[in-house]
């Protein structure tokens, strides 16, 4: 799928999902996924769930969510390897990636470990619902600005 088609599909989905967009929530713990999926739905997000990295890669490629909340400790691939694969695949490279983990304590910790700049931010579990929504919106805004800047650069 070409990037223009992907952007159009994401815009249509966002309009039908209450303007908040689509979130892929990746966590191997069923209760964690269930609780945070419900919270995100309350905030108006359309939520897709995956309990493994390989399932997340398939769903991300097929559905092209706006945001991926990605646990770092998954049973099949690490969150880091999953993020690398998402970033190098043209079909998934434009989604916002957020670490969703109890093992990252601060932005400094994330930047120290994320040499390649794979992630757009982090959410430390457990997290308050309002903070989760704010972090997702910041990541979405940053990705929108990047796409706009890229489009402006291509048009010039």
Molecular structure report:
With 156 residues, this protein is an alpha/beta fold. The chain has one domain: Response regulator (Rossmann fold), CATH 3.40.50.2300. It has helices spanning 3-16, 30-42, 53-63, 79-88, 107-113, 129-155, and strands at residues 22-26, 46-50, 67-70, 96-101, 121-124. It has a five-stranded parallel sheet with strand order 2-1-3-4-5, with helices on both faces. The two termini are 24 Å apart. Residues 1-18 and 108-112 have low confidence and may be disordered.
Distance between the termini: 24 Å
CATH architect. name: 3-Layer(aba) Sandwich
Number of strands: 5
**How helical, in percent, are the residues?**
40-55%
Spans of at least 5 consecutive residues whose pLDDT stays below 50 are: 1-18, 108-112
**How would the global form be characterised?**
globular
Number of helices: 6
Structural class estimated from helices and strands: alpha/beta
CATH superfamily: Response regulator
CATH fold topology: Rossmann fold
The structural domain count equals 1
Strand content: 15-25%
Output the CATH class name.
Alpha Beta
Described by strand count, sense and barrel closure, the largest sheet is: 5 strands, parallel
Q: Reading side by side through the largest sheet, how are the strands ordered?
A: 2-1-3-4-5
Query: Roughly what is the average pLDDT, rounded to an integer?
Result: 81
Please give the radius of gyration in angstroms: 15 Å
Give helix and strand order, one letter per element, not per position: HEHEHEHEHEH
């Amino acid at each position: 799928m070409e990037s223009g088609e992907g952007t159009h599909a994401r815009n249509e989905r966002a309009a039908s999902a209450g303007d908040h967009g689509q979130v892929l929530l990746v966590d191997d713990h069923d209760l964690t996924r269930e609780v945070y999926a419900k919270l995100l739905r309350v905030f108006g997000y359309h939520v897709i769930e995956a309990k493994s990295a390989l399932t997340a890669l398939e769903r991300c490629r097929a559905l092209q969510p706006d945001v991926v909340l990605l646990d770092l400790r998954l049973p099949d691939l690490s969150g880091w390897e999953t993020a690398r694969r998402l970033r190098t695949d043209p079909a998934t490279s434009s989604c916002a990636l957020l670490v969703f983990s109890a093992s990252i304590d601060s932005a400094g910790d994330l930047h120290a470990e994320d040499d390649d700049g794979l992630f757009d931010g982090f959410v430390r579990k457990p997290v308050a619902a309002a903070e989760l929504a704010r972090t997702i919106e910041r990541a979405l805004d940053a990705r929108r600005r990047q796409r706009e800047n890229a489009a402006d650069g291509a048009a010039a």
